[in-house]
Every structure is written in structure tokens, then in C-alpha cells.
């Protein structure tokens, strides 16, 4: 998972479309917060 602002939307969208086609329309996508807490 990564923040939406750190990726181009095209490649993940293509991958999701392919998985959706293979699974017969059974893909669920949920947005992540993209939060990274620096430790230390």
C-alpha cells in the first residue's frame, strides 16, 4: 500500500482491471490513508 499521491494512477488501474476480468467482477478496492510515521 502506498499513498495515492506517491503513485501514478494508470498502472494500478490496469492491474485492477485485469484481476477484475479474471475474477468475474469480484475486486474490491478501498482507499488507504497513506500515513507513514517516522520511528525514532
TrEMBL record:
GO molecular function, one term: monooxygenase activity
Keywords per UniProt: Monooxygenase, Oxidoreductase
Keyword presence, Oxidoreductase: yes
Designated name of the protein: Alkanesulfonate monooxygenase
